[in-house]
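Q: Putative murein peptide carboxypeptidase, please. Structure only.
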Amino acid sequence: MGLKRLADAGFAAEVADQVRETWYLHAGTDGARAQAIYDAGRDPHVDILWCARGGYGAAKLLPLLDELTEKHGAPDPKLLIGYSDITILNHYTRLKWGWGTMHANMPATLSFNSMAESEFDTTMKWARGELCEPAWSGQTFEYLACPPSEPVRGEVVGGNVSVWNSLYGTPWSPGSITGKILFFEDLNEYHYRLDGLVTHLLQAGGLDGVAGIVLGDFTNCDDEAGTCLAAPVEGEERSLLLKEGLDALPAERAQPLRPQVPQRDALEHMLVAPARDRGIPVMKGLPVGHGPGFAPLPLGSVFEMTPEGAFNLVSWDWLSE
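A: Structure for Putative murein peptide carboxypeptidase:
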């Protein structure tokens, strides 16, 4: 279905043989996947590498891509499209090969066929290199911290929080992000997990010198407070209740260990407050991520955060002048 929608939009898509393979948790061995990416990058008939989907395993390819690059040279500049686990490859190909990269939906996902027309149209136009406004053009977004008095411009980097965070401490660390705008989104991460990821990011210097932070969708990122035995009722033997374990407790006999924390409050504690302490503007609500918004976002492009809450594209090398 995704391939048909691409074809209807005028793209001649070829599916790499490796995509249909199965090995361990992945679509092919690490070597096969790295070779497929490199070969497509060297193919003069290929302009865009559009990842089929995300998932897990892109980080394993980085040393193999390094080996191929050292042995044969970097492929000519192209555009890589994908998000989620592809955050790793977006970063690598931009850093090592000088490619254009776009955080955008992928054809093997169900949402690729149901995304809003404005989001799909912008994705197609930007993939072709056509100048157009972002899918959210005309909208303004809320500042959670440090609304700027003047426009803030910077190169946009980042992607999925958990994947971006995993780059720190590796040879492919993002390094200095001074003056850049950091974009984050995520999926299916409990608050305590996100808090731990952001804590590591902060301690690794991942916000040092950042010009601004823009938050997309944090889909199904909810709290998980755990449960404990509620106070006993008259005549109840607690030892009997605990004999079978907490999992076997009737629902009415269990209670949360603590109050549930709403997502907005969790983001305030883990990310917004530290950003505020550093004087970093934080904007929330960009319709980018794992849904409900699937608008494309070019990474490595220059955007502007305005005092009024607009987020405007300034320049992107991939687009035609």
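A: Brief note, in case it's useful. The first helix runs from residue 2 to 8.
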